[in-house]
UniProtKB/TrEMBL annotation:
The chain crosses the membrane at residues 26-48, 68-88, 109-134, 146-164, 198-222. It comes from the Bacteria. Keywords: Membrane, Transmembrane, Transmembrane helix. It comes from Micromonospora inaquosa. Signal peptide: none annotated. GO terms for molecular function: oxidoreductase activity. GO terms for cellular component: membrane. It holds the Pfam family Oxidored_molyb. Coiled coil: none annotated. Residues 252-385 form the Oxidoreductase molybdopterin-binding domain. Gene3D superfamilies: Oxidoreductase, molybdopterin-binding domain. This is Molybdopterin-binding protein. GO terms for biological process: respiratory electron transport chain.
Length: 386
């Protein structure tokens, strides 16, 4: 006679790592990682697509470099923490639904649905985020839009999950891992506290190693200790790039002139005339949304001084248009605060050398505390907006 396999129940899983004490602590750390990732990601989205009420400061010049680095590295840390959290709670999948109690059954089904949404959305964010830092997009949707929308889904699912599990989590977090009377009463003669602590230390350690192995993308002094960093100081003229001049199909006309327009006025300059204007050198980072960043010494004309020279009004937003014609970021709008900052340059040189084509020759925008996608290369036109 063949016996049917018995469906497991949560009580069958006795490993210390399945303890509510472990799950609650992992959930707390995972919540911090997701909170940092969500908050800094929201900032990055608002910088690139600013609502009317939003402003972003120009100083410190490394501010976006820091916030976007935190965004990516907190996402990296969340991956092992999420896997450890799922391991600690997966026996809960075998809780049998209260079929004879409609109200409790509905609550049970709603909780399971919310957990499913949370797990699927969290994995979507983390996996697509990893593909994004590798600049690989094997899907048919536009990554920024989908990533932003699902981020709100994750945030809402986390809040719902916390609200449902708060009494259990609060009790578990208030119970010490070492010498717990509750645990001793539940399992006389057995002390699993050392195993629980070892599992938690391992989970946090793996998350720390993952961060250390990748942090060199944005922390220069960690580059030699970060074997998995996806960008380094290597690249044309010592600075990495995301898009080459060839990929952007850039052709600089022999008679190239920079056009500056504003309501009621227009001025043009050749490259020689632009280089003859007073130049300023500043050390500024290029900080990309993929999390990598690198600093360089940029030399060029401060945008505010260029506008004054042309007789254009200052203290207004300025739209920069590239020679690139078909890119998503062929143009960008510089907020008034950045356009007025003396460190915002229309750069002609990098680290003492003339810009290479891949870095934006004949000139490019370099502004403090701005995403790299908004540091327009191959600039052809400046338009002062109203």
């Amino acid at each position: 006679m063949i016996r049917r396999p018995r469906i497991p129940v949560p009580e069958d899983f006795t490993a210390p790592s399945h303890s509510p004490l472990v799950a609650a602590r992992l959930g707390l750390w995972l919540g911090v990682a997701f909170g940092l990732c969500f908050g800094t990601g929201l900032l990055s989205h608002f910088i690139q697509h600013p609502p009317g009420w939003f402003t972003w400061p120009t100083r410190p010049v490394n501010l976006y470099r820091i916030t976007q680095g935190v965004h990516v590295l907190s996402g990296v840390a969340a991956i092992p923490l999420l896997l450890a959290k799922l391991w600690s709670v997966y026996p809960r999948l075998f809780v049998r639904p209260p079929l004879r109690q409609p109200i409790r059954l509905s609550a049970h089904a709603l909780e399971r649905l919310s957990v499913l949404v949370l797990v699927c959305a969290a994995f979507f964010e983390l996996v697509t985020g990893l593909f994004n830092v590798a600049q690989s997009y094997p899907w048919g949707f536009f990554f920024p839009t989908a990533h932003y929308a699902v981020a709100w889904l994750v945030a809402g699912a986390i809040l719902l999950h916390v609200a449902v599990k708060l009494p259990i989590a609060r009790a578990a977090l208030s119970t010490p891992l070492r010498g717990s009377r509750a645990v001793a009463a539940a399992a006389p003669g057995r002390d699993d506290s050392s195993e629980r602590r070892a599992f938690l230390r391992t989970s946090v350690g793996v998350a720390g190693i993952a961060v250390l192995a990748t942090a060199g993308v944005t922390v220069p002094w960690l580059r030699r200790a970060s074997p998995l960093a996806w960008r380094s100081a290597a690249g044309p003229q010592g600075i990495p790039i995301n898009r080459t001049a060839a990929a952007a199909r850039i052709v600089v006309p022999p008679d190239w002139r920079l056009e500056i327009v504003w309501p009621g006025g227009r001025e043009t300059l050749s490259l020689a005339e632009l280089a003859a204007l007073p130049q300023h050198t500043a050390e500024l980072p290029i900080a990309c949304v993929e999390g990598w960043s690198a600093s360089a010494h940029w030399t060029g004309v401060p945008v505010v001084q260029l506008l004054r020279w042309a007789g254009a009004p200052t203290g207004r937003p300025v739209r920069f248009t590239s020679l690139e014609t078909d890119g998503l970021y062929a143009a960008s709008t510089l907020p008034a605060a950045h356009a007025s900052d003396p460190l915002t340059l229309l750069a002609l040189r990098i680290n003492g050398e003339q810009l290479s084509p891949d870095h934006g020759y004949p000139c490019r925008l370099v502004a403090p505390s701005r995403p790299g996608v908004l540091q327009t290369k191959w600039v052809a036109r400046l338009e002062v907006l109203r």
